[in-house]
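agent> Task received from the user: take the single chain below, predict its 3D structure, and emit C-alpha cells. No templates, no multimer pairing.
agent> Plan: (1) validate residues, (2) run structure prediction, (3) serialize to C-alpha cells, (4) report one or two observations.
agent> Step 1 OK, no nonstandard residues flagged.
tool_call: predict_structure(input=
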Amino acid sequence: MRTSNIKVKNKIVSVYFLLFIFVVYLLVVFNVFTDFGNIASHTFLLLVFGVAFLFFLIYIISKYFEYNSDGLNLILINRGFILSEYFNYREHVVEFDKTDLVAFKFQNYIVYQRLVLYYKTKNGNKIKSCFNVTLLAKKKQNYISQSLKKTLKNNLQNN
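)
tool_result: status=success, residues=159
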C-alpha cells in the first residue's frame, strides 16, 4: 500500500501567502496609526510576534509524509513541503524489512500528530523512529494502522 499527503501542499502554500498578505496589511495599517503613540506600537509588536509564531508553527507542522508497504520492505519518508525540491534539509527516510517491525503507535497532541515505529536492526537492537503525520488525513492514518497491524500479526505468526 502506498499513500502520501502531497495534495496538502497547495493548501500550505496558500496559508503562507495569506500570512504574507496579513503582514503587509499590518505594516500599512500601523504605518497610518503611528501618530497614536505607544498603544499602536505595543499592539504592532504583539501582532508581529503572533504572526511569527504562526509562521514557525506551520513550518514545524507542514511536512510531506509517504508510506510504502509494497514488497518486502517498509519505506517511510518525511520531508519539508517548502523548498524540498531543491534542498533536502528536513528529510528523514527509514527503510527496513517488514519482519523487523516490533511495534507502532500514533501519538495525537493538540496541533501535532506523529507515528512512532519500533523496529529491529541487523544487530538485534531496537530503534525508535518518529514521523510527522499531522497533515495526513484520518482515513489514510487508519489505512496505515491497518497495514502495520497486519504486518505485526504476520510477524507474530511466523515467529
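agent> Step 4: summary for the user.
Strands lie at 2-4, 63-68, 73-80, 92-97, 101-108, 113-120, 126-132.
agent> Done.
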